[in-house]
Amino acid sequence: MNRITVYERANFEGLSREFTCDVPDLHELDFGDCIASLKVVGQPWIAYTDPKYEGEPYAFEEGEYPSVGRPNSFSALRLVHHDLGDPQITLYEQPNFQGACKVVTEETNLAYGYFNDRVASHVVQRGVWLLYQHPGRGGWHCLAWPGERLADYKLELNFQARLSHLRPLQPGRPLVSARLLWEQKRVEAEREVLVDEIEGVNETESEQALAASSSREYGTTLWQSFHFSNATSLKAGLSFTLTVEASNIFTVQKGRSESSTRRERVEVQLPAKIPPRTALSIQVLRKEVTLSVPVLLTITQNEAVRTEMGEYRSVSGTNISARYSLKPLPAAGREQAATEGTELVPGTGMQLKL
């Protein structure tokens, strides 16, 4: 939700108020001319030095401001509802939109080019713009709103041939929720990898303990990544979480952290004893599965909701299992062929080959 929290002292101390809609006169709410710090969530806010959105405007984009440029001077607050995603303003050298023109779509220091101190009129196609008298966001400034056609800087602003810097207000960060569409998952590859092999032989007529430990630890790996669509509107730095399962919450940060690798240790139980006159063979196997799952992204920004598709991919090697093979040794004086079958070793939950 778009909101602003204002404080009567610097560093977010003292009395505070939170607002989610325009406030034409803070004095009516007993908070006029006392704001010294503030926090903004979502879209930018404009603070005015006079009630009813008059006086000097000061813009505050999403973030925390432990101090403000004009403490104890704000009398009104206005939320910027406009779409700020694709700003554009056209500057003209002469009044009434005449003469040479320049189209600007991003923050620009005109002192670095040929249009410094030459602007006399403008048309705002999209976005909300801050216009400054001096380079580096310095000096007197004013706001330009979407659709605004200001025909003469001298008559309307007393600002002719004085514009040196301008920038569009930045939209608040969108809120992104992600949902894995498991019903559409695709298993792209599946294989078993041998990670350990243990052999034991009991040549006696009585049951013997296995020399090895009754359990062993093995490492597992989960590699996972998220791929945005080519048409995504999300910008670098935006982050959200993807809940793959209760124990696996994958944080995606666009342009910085779109993949991760998890390594863990798992314990595998082994049989404790070998039957009389039997050879025991144990194979420890890791099952690796490569899969992809479509992801539905729901993006909320400035009270508007849109959706995009992405893709979650993973190569999972977290499933470790043990396979056992018991082979009777040849009886004294004759050969005895091994018979084969499959059952569970009691208490282990593992497959036993006989």
Automatic annotation (TrEMBL):
Beta/gamma crystallin 'Greek key' domain sequence ranges: 2-42, 43-81, 87-126
Domain of life: Eukaryota
Keyword Repeat assigned: yes
Keywords (A to Z) from UniProt: Repeat
InterPro entries: Beta/Gamma-Crystallin, Beta/gamma_crystallin, G_crystallin-like
Gene3D superfamilies attached to this UniProt entry: Crystallins, Proaerolysin, chain A, domain 3
Record GO biological process: lens development in camera-type eye; visual perception
Segments of this protein annotated with the region Disordered: 332-354
SMART domains per the UniProt record, alphabetical: XTALbg (SM00247)
GO MF annotation terms: structural constituent of eye lens
Residues annotated as transmembrane: none
Family membership noted in the UniProt record: Belongs to the beta/gamma-crystallin family.
Name this protein carries in UniProt: Beta/gamma crystallin 'Greek key' domain-containing protein
Organism: Accipiter nisus (Eurasian sparrowhawk)
